[in-house]
Amino acid sequence: MLNLTLVFCNRGLMLLDKLKEKQRRLVNKVKSINYERHELEFIKSNEKLIALIGSRGVGKTTVLLQYALLFDIDELLYFSADDIGIAKTGLYEIAEEFSSLGGKVIVIDEIHQFKDWAKHIKNIYDDFDLKIRIGGSSMLKILMQGYDLSRRILIKELRNLSFKEFFEINENISLKLYSLDEIIENHNDISFDLINRYPNLYREWKRYLEMGCYPYFLSSATKENFYSKLFNSIEKIIYEDIPATNKVKYDSLVVFKKLIYILISSRVPFQVNVSNLAKELSISEPSLYIYMDILNKTGLFKSIKKYSKKLSRKPAKLYFDNTNLLHAIAFDMSTVVEIGTVRETYFVNIFKDIYYSDIGDFRIKDYIFEVGGKNKDFQQIKNIKNSFLAIDTDTTINKRKIPLWLFGFKY
Description:
This protein is an alpha/beta fold. Helix content is 45%, strand content 13%. It has 16 helices and 13 strands. Strands 2-3-4-1-5 form a 5-stranded parallel β-sheet. A 5-stranded mixed β-sheet has the order 9-10-11-12-13. A 3-stranded antiparallel β-sheet has the order 6-8-7. The protein is globular.
């Protein structure tokens, strides 16, 4: 028995050495990245267990490695749960070995790739004096169901780059965030000031709509290269991340591809008729609700409900989660993208609590918004209180016309 223990300890130490060497190389790569997302401050807190979740490609690994930079190599251990050595040894065993050597923080990326990860994390939390940071799929909340982690874990979502973040990275600057109320109250002055300081801002917003929502726009020499990387992420979400939920059989994954095809083929924002759509996909209505909920959580789709005082699970309209997805899938399928759909997709995905409205286009809190081009008029909302046009222009002097790009400074 003693010999077996020694063998395991030696093997554990060898694995730790390999992981640390890999960690050193990865951390060294992010030293040249000066830009820090706001979410980094959140995971710096003294909370014992924090999960950083988000769709593929939004930059979770970079944030976790920037966090690792704050510690000495002996204090923090970073590794990815999809490393082949991890599957043979186990998360708990690695944490136990690291803790026995005086380690203080353990950071585990791609956590959803490890079977029974939630059980391991619960036991690590309970048994060791370690700070734990994990990164994983947007569907982490689904994956941890069945384990009592809710009292132990704080979850922070890392969204795709906002226009503000994209522009800050490009220009190597830091700009102010604006709340929705600030934008509504002061948009004339804010937009005029920003456009005067940065004459290329409006032009860069147009580029952002096509290829700026993901940090790898920096390493993409062409639009085609960017779309190739994004399409590869979409494939991995469908064929790797979604099956990991165990809610969908592998042979049912074709339904997700069909949903994507239906959405891009509609060319305009897709109005959902649950009964008809379920029949078209040859699935039951309850299954359709499950599939659409999964696509929302993966960061591929964004469904919005019609504004009503009654609670409803029925989505009224379906959008892609960002304009880059819309452009990439349209490019892959040789489909023309309607500019009106691009504008609405951009606007919808800035807000978490947004509703489709019969008056205007959208309702956010007590505000009504109509989204359109530069020459859009007030005909549909002219007598509506707290109503505004969100229009595709650089700056305006009208108090009820707000430049569409400015909403990208909300986060």
